[in-house]
Amino acid sequence: MKKLISVISSLVLAAGMTSALAANAADDYKPSFYFKAEAGTGVEILKYGTVYINNSISGVNATIPVSAYIKDDEKIAGQIFAKWNCENKDLQLKDATGGFAKAGNIPYKISGANSDADLVNLIRTFEDLNMVSVNYTETDARKPLQLTGDTSDAYPLACFNAVFKENAPAGSYDINFYSQGAYFSSVIPRYVNDPSKIIEVNPAEYSEGLRLNSSDRLLGDINNDGQINAFDASQILLAYANHSTSKPTGLSPAQEAAADVDGNRKYDSVDASNVLAFYAYTGTGHHDKTLNQFIKGE
User: Fold this and answer.
1) Domain check: are 171 and 243 in the same one?
2) How far apart are alpha carbons 62 and 38 in whole angstroms?
3) Is the pLDDT of residue 9 over 70?
4) Which of these, 33, 87, 173, 198, could form a disulfide with 91 (CB 3.0-4.6 Å)?
5) CA diameter of the chain
6) Which CATH number do you get for residue 112?
7) Proportion of the chain above pLDDT 70, given as a percent
8) Pair type for strands 123-126 and 131-137
């Protein structure tokens, strides 16, 4: 009996320690935001999330549907202010809506919100800043927002279109979560066991934005001759070597956009290796995949 009591006491103590650790972990936990873009004609989603637009196929004023999400595994968000923009206004952020039309719902149960039309006060576009703003607030300050699905990112916070202006120059465009002055992004957690505790976090500091690389050629076709081969790989390697030694890369913005074939926001020896491997693959008579499909293992 003494042994049993001792074991139970140890388990209770361990459970208490685990609970305390969990509480401490919650204090340090930070929800984050992220984007998902949709592929289409001339538009590819690369291995590491970058969007590649071949504007000779998609058109120079291509439109890319994008959705914004919150990742909150601890389910503690009580108030959400999310803002994002593109500083380069050759890429316009337009047509912001909720997720009802595209995904069937929004991530949180908001009173009176049953369609995208009901979210007019939650989702706004600031054209002068090329910015989209989303605000989700729980009226009961004692508890977190109530999820619609099983996870916070079961549905998007908002959906919008990234639209290239006519004759927008080739190159890289970034949509980033924004937090400056009055236009801040933040998440305020709400703790059920301690509703008086207010800890505001700034996800814009650590949430990953979305890069869109626009070019006038196939991904990986650096010299734009309609083929992806060893010459393209050598041009990527040379540009990488020049960049590593602070020299001009020797590539145009359109070529630089096409050189980042895995979409990790840089072009390097890995990109060159991917191009060479794809060249060898097609050299054996395989023409069933694009370079992007080959890199992603599709």
Assistant:
1) no
2) 12
3) no
4) 173
5) 83
6) 2.60.40.680
7) 88
8) antiparallel
